[in-house]
Design a protein that fits this description.
Elements lengths: L2 E2 L5 E2 L28 H24 L2 H4 L3 H34 L1
Antiparallel strand pairs: 1-2
């Protein structure tokens, strides 16, 4: 196989083939380290984040519905407050999970 130089001329040097590293048959391949198990409270936070994100999505879809247009003004304000609180809660959960993942990777 030939390759072209930037000028467009054919480069006569062959393209090197990629070679897999050779492992001697008697050489033992070290096993990959097992990941540490995820603590239960982290799993619960991950599930909570997924559930909350789903609820936020449903509320956002509700905002675009005809049903939302029929809701009274006072309730719309409360729904908006609830939505903002849900976003803050999701942000806090996400940040906590990030901190725990960084701590786990550092150890």
């Amino acid at each position: 196989m030939q390759r072209r130089a930037q000028s467009g001329a054919v480069d006569p040097r062959p393209i090197p083939e990629r070679v897999a590293p050779v492992i001697h048959p008697r050489e033992e391949v070290p096993p990959a380290p097992k990941p540490e198990p995820v603590p239960d409270f982290i799993q619960r936070m991950q599930r909570e984040l997924e559930d909350l994100s789903g609820k936020i999505l449903k509320l956002e879809e509700f905002f675009d519905s005809e049903e939302y247009e029929s809701v009274e003004s006072a309730e719309k304000q409360l729904i908006a407050f609830q939505y903002g609180s849900m976003l803050q809660y999701r942000s806090a959960l996400s940040q906590r999970l990030t901190i725990h993942k960084q701590n786990q990777e550092a150890s």
